[in-house]
Amino acid sequence: MTAARRGLTAARLAAAFALGAVSVAGFGDWPFFPLPLAALAALFWLWSRAPSARAAAQLGFAFGAGLFLVGVSWVYVSLHRFGGMPLPLAAVATVLFCLYLAVYPAAVGYAQARIPATPAVRWMLVVPALWVLAEWLRGWLFTGVPWLALGYSQADGPFAGFAALAGVFGVSFLAAATAGAVLTFAVARGAARLTALAAIAAVMIGGGALRTIEWTMRHGDPLAVSLLQGNIPQELKFVPGRYEATLETYARLAERAQGRLIVWPETAIPRFLGDVDPAYVARLKALAVARGGDFLIGAPVLDQDGRYYNAVVSLGASPGQVYAKSHLVPFGEFVPPGFGWVVALLKIPLGDFARGAEAQPPLALGGQRVAANICYEDAFGEEIIRPLPEATLLVNVSNVAWFGDSLAPAQHLRIARLRALETGRFMLRATNTGVTAIVAPDGAVVARLPSFTEGVLEGRVEGRAGATPYVRLGNTPAVLAALAIVAGAAIAGRRGRGKRRADADLRAGA
Hints:
50% helix; alpha/beta; Nitrilase/N-carbamoyl-D-aminoacid amidohydrolase; 2 domains; six-stranded mixed sheet; 510 residues
């Protein structure tokens, strides 16, 4: 390879890395939803200039490295600052984790280069379908890392209306297809350009029209809710001398709260609930009963066989109920086989939880049926819809203090907004340090507390009954459609290649 060619390759790889890094801004607190689309359109253009499938894979890997090294950099914070892992090991582990995630866009780059198709079909159908399949695979392989799926960046954009139909992966497909249409319009001529323009207009108009549809209906009376944010520093949460102060903080916030349903964050009580002073529990129950309401308290619970669970427990006017977390965080909440040595380097209390059952009924609280989920469980759309349509309200409790003042809390809020859109239900988020928020069924954040402050978020929400198409069908339509597009393009490309070979043989024979 000549020096000029090496320089060009390096420049393109650097550009792909920068595009991935810049697109992270679309997943934060800012309405920068066009940015990931522009970055993706530019990546598609770089792929169109790649001399081989291998070169396209390298460009995809560089894009993914930029996306995840910037967008998931908070993993380092949890490993080193709060997990106690030595700095060099935490840095290496974070880089390796992000580079693993970069393999998925690399695979898309390689696969799209191996499938013969016209430019318009490639950018508007084949690549978006491959992108969705890669995101879906990333969302379940090795317990799944669905973070930064393209659809999450579009909570404020025109494609959000499609979430109730086909979920976040359907939104990802349409967003990627629009990026491809923008590229096609920019570089193509004639019919392909008109097709691209028509596709962009159709998606924009369709998304706007879908936002006007009310997929679910009001259920019961409006419910006054209070979401507690204790702002307990993670480095002090499990210090024995801070235990009593932590309990008193949450008791004080609970006494200030006005709601009928009062939600505490994940592991707000940093001790097995059965070990808490009975007088403290009685004080809380008396407070809730006097108001005719319920507390939903995050606390680890121990069963009679010695297994312990990351759970939420209700306390108050309704019968006591428990939801135990079923989708655990690798290394943080369970130890994958063969990786005990990693956990030995971490200082994470209660690091080997048992899994709750996959199918758990909603909690009957405050006249509603509450589908509880804990920590990053709300990143898995098909798991959130398991108790639906019976559940009328979604509640997530989290302790994102593990990631400090990083990009993670804002990214997690975007995930919650897509879950609300997909299900047509309110999502309540009670967190230790933020973002504590109330999200409406249309994905709008109607109220939130400032991060890293102690407080109570008050609001009124409606239970919702009924089912969106996504609640009924899950990710299946989006995944099957993507598979059909890729298979159809591959078959058509193979037939076209065979026909061209046959024509060449005929000409040679003549």
